[in-house]
Amino acid sequence: MRHILEIDDLSSEELARVLDLAAAPDPAKVLTGKGMALIFEKPSARTRNSMEMAVVQLGGHPVYIAANEIGLDTRESVEDVTNTMAGFHAAIGARVFEHSTVERMAAVDRVPVVNLLSDQSHPMQALADLLTVRREFSELAGRTVAYIGDANNVARSLALGAGLAGMNFRISTPPEYAFAEADLDRIRATGLEPEILDRPEDAVAGADAIYTDTWTSMGQEEEAAQRRRDFEGFTVDERMMGFAQVGAIFLHCLPAHRGEEASDDVLDGPRSRIWIQAANRMHAARGLLSWLLNEAQE
Predict the structure, then answer these.
(1) Which range marks the domain in which residue 182 is found?
(2) pTM exceeding 0.90
(3) Is the domain of 61 the same as that of 174?
(4) What Cα–Cα distance (Å) separates residue 263 from each residue in 231, 238, 240?
(5) Nearest to residue 251, comparing CAs of 78, 141, 140, 131?
(6) 134 and 91 in one domain?
(7) Phi/psi of residue 5, each to 5°?
(8) Which residues pair with 95 in a beta bridge?
(9) Which residues, other chains included, contact 135 with Cβ-Cβ below 8 Å and sequence gap of 6+?
(10) Does residue 2 form part of some domain?
(11) pLDDT at position 216, please?
(12) Based on the domain organization, do 128 and 112 belong to the same domain?
């Protein structure tokens, strides 16, 4: 049984295959007559819509399940909920607070489990990011992505995916928001040595893709004022984009806090690919599910 809790649960070859399937115009209906449970402890417009439409395009029936409908570890244990859902569905997707929740679901090992987001990882976003860059530049190997901001779950999955794809990865973040050593060890295991730079301008210089994310993620609202102070000077604006490679693109996983991590003229400018990137969440999900529910289980 294969599960995708982080993007490096795929090999480099498997990642390339998933991206190929994501780009396929007429995917095989691997979910015909089947359902997929989509469990959401944390809400998300992009994750819900992309996953539901991906399941529909594969011939299946998505079932959205809000946190208060099942009460993980309050009404029922994570394991009991997983066993119940496995009786109805061909796969389970879960967007959760703690990464240990999806690890416990996968340990039940009855149907494939896909991490739709946890405090540690966001593999579905990273797949969409890589798909966006590949569609823009035709290939990933040798391209450079510069991440400006908090070394959070999005940055971690992106770095791992970049390593698997043979890309270069740079990050600029205040020291107190940097990757933990364990994260750096895992990133290096993909063959990538990430560049960690103090000045965001240095990270952006000559890069093919400039990426940022909100400085304050869901559940960190009490830290918002302090984070705005800590990230002063890290806003991606036109001046900063000017250091990038000619033809560079701008990426953001959304939702954006306009005027904080990125300026309006960048978010809405000609180099922005944020809406294509958002739409690619659906295509990436379809590619992963096509592979996971067919080729990976053979």
Answers:
(1) 123-278
(2) yes
(3) no
(4) 14, 8, 10
(5) 131
(6) no
(7) -100, -20
(8) 40, 117
(9) 23, 276, 280
(10) no
(11) 83
(12) no
Residues 67, 279: Cα–Cα separation, whole Å = 25
Please report, for residues 135, 278, 298, the alpha-carbon distance to residue 57 in angstroms, rounded to integers and kept in the order given. Answer: 21, 17, 22
pLDDT by residue (tens digit) across 142-201? Answer: 999 999 999 999 999 999 999 999 999 999 999 999 999 999 999 999 999 999 999 999
Q: What are phi and psi of 100, to 5 degrees?
A: -60, -25
| Integer Cα distance of 287 and 127 in angstroms | 9
Q: In what order do the strands lie in the sheet with 249-252?
A: 195-196, 168-172, 144-148, 209-212, 249-252
Q: Which residue do the tokens 């409908």 mark? A: 69
Residue 189 lies in a domain: yes
Cα separation, 228 vs 233, whole angstroms? 10
The dihedral through the CA atoms of 220, 223, 225, 231 has a sign that is negative
Do 5 and 160 touch, CB atoms closer than 8 A?
no
Residue where the block lists tokens 């960048």: 266
Task: State residue 24 phi and psi, 5-degree precision.
Answer: -70, 130
Query: Do residues 127 and 115 both lie within one domain?
Result: no
Confidence of residue 102 (pLDDT cuts 50, 70, 90): very high
If DSSP codes are grouped into helix, strand and coil, which group holds residue 56? helix
Same domain for 175 and 94 = no
How many separate domains does the chain show? 2
Residue whose token pair is 């978010």: 267
Kind plus residue range of the DSSP H or E element containing 145: strand 144-148
Only one residue has tokens 């959760």, namely 96
| Token pair belonging to 296 | 């990976």
- Of 97, 98, 115, which Cα lies nearest the Cα of 106? 115
How far apart (Å, rounded) are the C-alpha atoms in residues 130 and 124? Answer: 10
Residue 52 belongs to domain with CATH number? 3.40.50.1370
Are 169 and 159 spatial neighbours (Cβ–Cβ below 8 Å)? yes
Tokens of 113: 């489990």
What span, in angstroms and rounded, lies between the C-alpha atoms of 99 and 5?
8
Distance of CA 92 to the CA centre of its chain: 17
